[in-house]
Amino acid sequence: MGQLDEAAADSQKALEMNPDAWPGPSQLSEIYLRQGRPREALSEIKLVRYDPQRALLYSIAYYALGRGKESDSALSEFIAKYHAIDAYEIAEVYAFRNQPDEAFKWLDRAYAQRNSALMVTRVDPLLQSLRSDPRFAVFLKKLNLPPLHM
């Protein structure tokens, strides 16, 4: 809901209480990325245990740091390894990178895969850059989700 400082503090406290808590470092790194703190995100990404999630977050963090070649490399590796199961997450990377054509291509693949992550499409903060694109409303309708009211 945009309360990123509170979310970061809560995530940090949860990790202090239980360092093995899921989603722990993954959630905290995403919050840091949304706050424009990619350097802090990198230290948390190293702790993410789920390989596909770590690959997704590295792709985004490197891009946010202006390290385009590393972001491209991480994204290429992510696509090569996980395209059959993580099309939605690949779309998130492209949306974060403000590459809407690629993002919508991967959202369509996620739809064809019946990817369960599609349920959060309407509210996913990583898809923020797509919300003003007319294709986003069409895609929400395809998912039978209510339109955004901006």
**Approximately how much helix is present in the residues?**
55-70%
> How many domains in all?
2
In the predicted model, the low-confidence regions spanning at least 5 consecutive residues are none
Shape: globular
Topology:
Elements: H1 4-17, H2 24-34, H3 38-45, H4 51-64, H5 68-82, H6 87-96, H7 100-113, H8 134-142
Write up this protein.
This protein is an all-alpha fold. The protein has helices at residues 4-17, 24-34, 38-45, 51-64, 68-82, 87-96, 100-113, 134-142. α6 runs antiparallel to α7.
Task: From the structure above, extract its key features.
single chain; 150 residues; mainly alpha; 63% helix; globular
How would you sum up this structure in a few lines?
Helix content is 63%, strand content 0%. The chain has helices spanning 4-17, 24-34, 38-45, 51-64, 68-82, 87-96, 100-113, 134-142.
